Amino acid sequence: MPPGSSKVTFESLGLVHSCFTEKFAIPRQPSLAPAARGWIELYPPYDQPQAVEGLQGVSHLWLLFVFHAASSGPEHLRVRPPRLGGNQRIGVFASRSTHRPNPIGQSVVKLDAIEAGRLLISGIDLLDGTPILDIKPYVPYADSLPSAHNALAEAAPVLLPVSWTDSALQQAQAQALRLQQPVVALIEQCLAQDPKPAYQQPEPEREYGVRFWDINVRWHYPDPARICVLSVLPV
Ligand code: SAM
């Protein structure tokens, strides 16, 4: 690439298969839902064992990826992060918004297993189908900065209590067995972060829904500070 060239082109080297098949209710950062699982399908030639040699001793990965389902471009100078209630605008470079000049995301995820041509990961905040640009090992001594601060996002989001109807819990347990996935924990961890827009005042009779894996989850707010799961049924 000539020095000073502004055009950069990359090929993706893999694809994320994720429990999150729609954007709604995906945690806003990785690690917030440890039960959120998926895998990276590595494309040839990166599906060869040589490409992942040495990863056996690594617990977490940095993923660089493309926000393929978000609008991007130079018009995104200021954004309205959901964390600030969705009304306040800040500079795009002060935010982790998906709407950015270049639609590049970065997440630290747990590496659960290495299989032929794929990496099993958890604690993800990635939509199904996300293209992967690069994978790097997390390096604790350099990447963990206990003295770092961010006035806009000083602490993890406040969690709402999540309860279940008896039938919804039984349904979730049945789906967990069928999918061999921690469905109950996934639902609790994702809904506790209150996926609905911050400006909405939920009425108890209003139902919300989302799809995780191939199951539809429905819930309501008995009061604005509590969530109750109503049903967990296959799509
Ligand atoms: N950890 C990443 C970062 O800091 O770059 C992502 C942060 S972004 C605020 C997280 C949100 O991105 C999720 O809640 C989800 O709605 C959205 N998202 C995840 N994968 C996406 C994709 N491939 N395309 C568009 N949006 C995506």
Folded structure, characterized:
This protein has two domains: 14-68 and 103-143, YaeB-like (Elongation Factor Tu (Ef-tu), domain 3), CATH 2.40.30.70; 162-234, no CATH class. A hairpin with a 2-residue loop joins strand 11 and strand 12 (226-234). The strands form three sheets. The protein has a six-stranded antiparallel beta barrel. Strands 9-12-11-10 form a four-stranded mixed β-sheet. Strands 4-5 form a two-stranded antiparallel ribbon. It is globular, with a radius of gyration of 19 Å. The chain contains three helices and twelve strands; from the N terminus they run E-E-E-E-E-E-E-E-H-E-H-H-E-E-E. The protein has 235 residues and is mainly beta. Helix content is 11%, strand content 31%. The chain starts with 13 loop residues before the first strand and ends with a strand. The structure holds S-adenosylmethionine (SAM).
What gyration radius follows from the Cα positions, in whole Å? 19 Å
- The average pLDDT score comes to 94
Distance between the termini: 47 Å
Individual helix count: 3
Any idea what the CATH architecture of the largest domain is?
Beta Barrel
**In which range does the helix fraction lie?**
10-25%
> Main β-sheet, in a few words?
6 strands, antiparallel, barrel
SS elements, strand count: 12
Strand residues, percent: 25-35%
- Stretches where pLDDT is under 50 for at least 5 consecutive residues are none
CATH class of the largest domain: Mainly Beta
Heteromolecules bound: S-adenosylmethionine
Strand arrangement, major sheet: 1-2-7-6-3-8
Let me know the CATH homologous superfamily of the largest domain: YaeB-like
CATH topology of the largest domain: Elongation Factor Tu (Ef-tu), domain 3
